[in-house]
Amino acid sequence: MKLYDFELSGNCYKVRLLLSLLGLDYTRESVQLGKQNHQPEFLALNPLGLVPVLQDGELVLRDSQAILVYLARKFNNDWIPLEAAELGQVTAWLSLAGNEIGSGPAGLRRIHRFGRNEDESAGRALSEKVFAVMESHLAEHEWLVGNRPTVADLACYPYLALAPEGKFDVSGYPAVTRWFQRIEALPGYIPLPR
């Protein structure tokens, strides 16, 4: 397997994290954003010009959430429930990771870490809403779905844990910070890209 990757990307990190937790061998090709991701060779892999992209034999797969589902289903079903209700719940969290977390906490990080021109007040309001939802859920559950970590946890974790890089204070969310610690204690955990 080959992962087309950018070190500081939380979306790339979540794929690297699952690959590490699964103990899988793969090669990494660092993609220089702003240049290499707009070249025809890369656009042939992902016409959107975004990372991550996973190549596994003939399969080329884009989008971090899709890659997490693929890896979990192919290599270890413990990371993705097969029962319909739990699978639906995982899918809802994956959607939150790709939408609200991607626009809220990840958006604030893009502003403050990378100097992107985005709407900070909208990103902050959405971040507060996301963290409130997470705090409420994690105050009553150790994991997002069921009684073990799933790809839902890995999809939501990076940009929430990196929220301080977007000048968002996570100290008022104790259940979320305890969840961070549970993820960081998993065998095979790799540090966040800071």
Low-confidence stretches: none
Class inferred from helices and paired strands:
alpha+beta
CATH fold description of the largest domain: Glutathione S-transferase Yfyf (Class Pi), Chain A, domain 2
**How large is the radius of gyration?**
16 Å
What number of domains? 2
Total beta strands? 4
What's the number of helices? Answer: 8
Helix proportion of residues, in percent?
Answer: 40-55%
Overall residue-averaged pLDDT value:
96
CATH C-level of the largest domain = Mainly Alpha
Distance between the termini: 25 Å
List the helices and strands in order. EHEHEEHHHHHH
Work out the strand percent. Answer: 5-15%
**CATH architecture label name of the largest domain:** Up-down Bundle
Main sheet: strand order: 2-1-3-4
Q: Quick one: overall form?
A: globular
User: Main beta sheet: strand number and arrangement?
Assistant: 4 strands, mixed
